[in-house]
Write a structure and sequence with these properties.
This protein has 278 residues and is of the alpha/beta class. It has helices at residues 42-51, 72-75, 78-88, 102-112, 114-123, 187-191, 212-221, 225-235, 252-260, and strands spanning 4-10, 24-29, 32-36, 64-66, 94-98, 133-137, 141-145, 150-155, 164-170, 173-177, 196-202, 239-246, 267-269, 275-277. Helix 8 crosses helix 9 (252-260). The chain is globular.
Length: 278
């Protein structure tokens, strides 16, 4: 019987926090991780989880990446994802799927670290392909499948930036990851009945206290607790995981209570290294 779990590797936002890495999580099926986004500190969280016995695999298993969008808090860890596992012994190239612009981003990273690559290849016993990256700029629909799972993409709405939400369909259950997005038509039908919904959120209660320009921005490209409660009432996931949480002075418990006042399902304000078994 297939076994699957999700580990939160980065529950944070663009704002640097001592206890939250940038956006990133892994859907793990039969011991193989499929990474969604790679913000600051995500690779370090994998090292921490492995050292603490939370996971059996290490960084060398990280060779499949699904990028929701190209904001830095979701991608600034990609150089670390390319070169640290390579030094640790990864032999396979990194395969990455994501929106338009991903191929250019990965090519520019390789150019920026060209001297590092040259020196390591000439002076260290590194694998031939473990530093390489192969990008696929995805379209809506099924973007990847293997013997363990299928991955489907749905266009998200994050302003002028191309973005996707992803759905991971495994024999053990289904996981939907929103990425950064405002509510979009069709999302509830697409995600309906999933076992785990991982969704970004900001506090509707605290939003009026924000500066006007930031209020306009967040209302245009993100999802409030009130909007997420309405979505969750349609989707009825087995569990709702909050990430990329904009608390604006609230505690995690207060944010959950705000959302739970309009939604009666299971809600978790995630922290780094939280795990969910499907």
């Amino acid at each position: 019987m297939s076994r699957a779990k999700v580990i939160m590797l980065g529950s944070g936002t663009p704002n640097a926090e001592a206890d939250r890495a940038g956006s990133g999580l892994a859907v793990v099926v039969d011991g193989r991780p499929y990474l969604v986004d790679c913000g600051h500190g995500v690779v370090q969280r994998v090292v921490q989880a492995h050292a603490g016995g939370l996971i059996s695999w290490d960084t060398t298993a990280l060779d499949r990446l699904f990028v929701t969008h190209l904001h830095a808090d979701h991608t600034v860890g990609i150089p670390d994802l390319l070169y640290t596992p390579w030094i640790h012994g990864r032999e396979a190239p990194l395969q990455a799927w994501g929106p338009a612009g991903l191929e250019q981003m990965l090519a520019h990273i390789q150019l920026a670290w060209a001297e590092n690559i040259r020196e390591h290849r000439s002076a260290h016993p590194c694998s031939e392909h473990g530093y390489q990256a192969r990008a696929t700029e995805a379209q809506a629909g099924c973007v990847y499948c293997d013997e363990r799972l299928e991955v489907h993409a749905l266009p998200a709405d994050h302003g002028d930036l191309a973005a996707f939400s992803y759905k991971f369909v495994t024999p053990a259950g289904t996981v939907v990851v929103s990425g950064d997005t405002k509510p979009v038509p069709g999302f509830a039908d697409w995600a309906r009945g999933c076992d785990l919904l991982v969704h970004e959120v900001y506090s509707a209660r605290q939003w009026p206290e924000r500066p006007p320009a930031w209020r306009a921005y967040h209302a245009r490209v993100h999802t409030s607790t009130r909007e997420l409660a309405a979505l969750a009432n349609e989707i009825r996931p087995g569990c709702l995981w909050l990430y990329h949480q904009l608390f604006w002075g609230l505690t995690p418990d207060e944010l959950v209570a705000e959302l739970s006042s309009e939604y009666d399902g299971d809600v978790v304000s995630t922290a780094d290294l939280d795990m969910y078994d499907l």
